[in-house]
Amino acid sequence: MSGELEAVTRRVRRLSRLKEDRFVQRANRVLEGVWDRGRRPEKIVLRSGLLLSRPEDPAPPLAQLLRPRGVALRFYLLAVFEAQCRLGVGDEWTRRGSPPLKGPGSWSDFIAIDGAYDKPSGTYMPATTWDRDIQVLRRQQIHGALRTLENLRSDAGRGLVEIPRTARGGGRDYAAFSLMQETGGGDAQTPALYSVPASRWHTTLSLPVDFFLRGWIQVLQPSEVATWMILRWLAQTYTKVYAESGAYLYANDRLGAFRLRRDSYEDACNRLCEFGLLRDADMGPASPPGVKPLSGWGPAPTQVGAQEFLFSQPARPDRHEPDHYRLADEGLGQDATEKSYKELLLRKHYLLRRSGAETPAPS
């Protein structure tokens, strides 16, 4: 079995499990309750330092969270969602009023996972995991996510969360974690706790709330989330060029600013188009001669940490014009589990036919 077919087959199996036990729908209901009881924000605002950094600096947090296993990126975005439902612009994060780690309506209810899968038997949650039910597995996933977020390092010092030690034994008190700014908690003695940002051109990114409430945050891969967020930032920052020719990335910018590999980016764009969250854009006018700024979007100051700078790269003949995309936010209103399952099942059958394996057509 080819690597792509194996990956798609595994993803279809996981989505089938999520559909069968309605894990995403249950998480959606919890998130809807948080949103409905709170400030009901239409968009969740993120600082752009989460996405990009200068080529000479460490990789931005988003790039460090592109991991095939674990839910660290998902948990951080969900924690920001919860904070902005509860707090106003400028308010600093506090544990008071935030969810508990376990129990109804807890952080573990924010996450949808498929559970423990036993490959030899082809079954979920085999008898050997009798002491690890789905609730325990979700809490373990969150513990792992918090450790990953705490251990991210950059010029800003601390990671994206801070977990205090317990008084006895030196263990971790996961329930008492603190949320940090998108670029980390800094290296001062007093950590830079997360505060809700105001939406500002070129220094923030806005995500429609349906990304959280319709289940997309639960079903998209980290590379797909990252690619979608990066294209959104480009579209929101360079509105004139986006209106003319869509969002696009040249290789130097993709690797230098965002640290996103070509295969991850291209595969993510293809899946996002299939899911109805992106669509191809007509090519815009040719870029002017001279210096080519970030992805041809015109020089704009981008604040990363406390320093402003301009992205630019030398002019060069572009042998391969990148694909241009437009955001399809109407697609966010679809049920994420149903749509992604349908499209990936179709892709699985396509790959099976291409490999010569016989399979009935999907219904």
Using brief descriptors, characterize the structure shown.
two-stranded antiparallel sheet, 12 helices, 10% strand, 39% helix, globular, two-stranded antiparallel ribbon, 363 residues, alpha+beta
How would you explain this protein's 3D organization?
This protein has 363 residues and is of the alpha+beta class. Helices cover 39% and strands 10% of the residues. Strands 1-6 form a two-stranded antiparallel ribbon. A hairpin with a 2-residue loop joins strand 9 (301-304) and strand 10. The radius of gyration is 21 Å and the shape is globular. The two termini are 23 Å apart.
Query: Between the first and last Cα atoms, what is the distance in angstroms?
Result: 23 Å
Please give the order of strands in the largest beta sheet.
1-6
Return the average pLDDT rounded to an integer.
Answer: 85
The description of the largest β-sheet is:
2 strands, antiparallel
Low-pLDDT segments: 283-294, 296-318
The share of residues in extended strands comes to 5-15%
Structural category is: alpha+beta
Helix-strand sequence: HHEHHEEHEEEHHHHHHEEEEEEH
Measured as a percent range, the helix fraction is 25-40%
Please tally the helical runs, counting DSSP H or I stretches of 4 or more residues. 12
* Form type: globular
- The number of strands is 12
Kindly provide the radius of gyration, computed on alpha-carbon positions and rounded to a whole number of angstroms: 21 Å
